[in-house]
Amino acid sequence: MKKKVLVIGVIGADVHAVGNRILYHAFTEAGFEVINLGVMVSQEEYIAAAIESAADAIVISSLYGQGELDCRGMREKCDEAGLKGIPLVVGGNIVIGKQKFEDVEKRFKDMGFDRAFPPGTLPETTIEALRELLHMEEEA
Amino acid sequence: MKPVLLIDFGSTYTKVTAVDVEAGCLLGTADSFTTIHTDIGEGLEKALEKLHAKTGELDYAARYACSSAAGGLRMITSGLVPELTAEAAHQASLGAGAKVLKVFSFQITEDDLEEILRINPDIFLLVGGTDGGNTECILHNARMLASIPFDFPVIIAGNRTAARECERILEGHEVHLCENVMPKFGVLNIEPVRKKIREIFLNRIIHAKGLSEASELISGILMPTPSAVMRAMHLLAKGCEGESGIGDLIAVDVGGATTDIYSMTDGMPQDASTVYKGLPEPFDKRTVEGDIGMRYSVHGIVDAAGIGRICQLSQLSQERVEELLELLDEHKDMIPESGSDLEKLDFALASMAIETAVARHAGTMEETYTLMGLTYVQSGKDLRHVGQVIVTGGSLIRTTRTGEIASHALASPAAPMSLRPLKAEIRVDRKYILAAMGLLSEYEPQIALRIMKKELEHDGYSEQKNS
Question: Which member of B286, B293, B390, B457 has the greatest number of CB atoms within 10 A?
Answer without folding.
Answer: B390
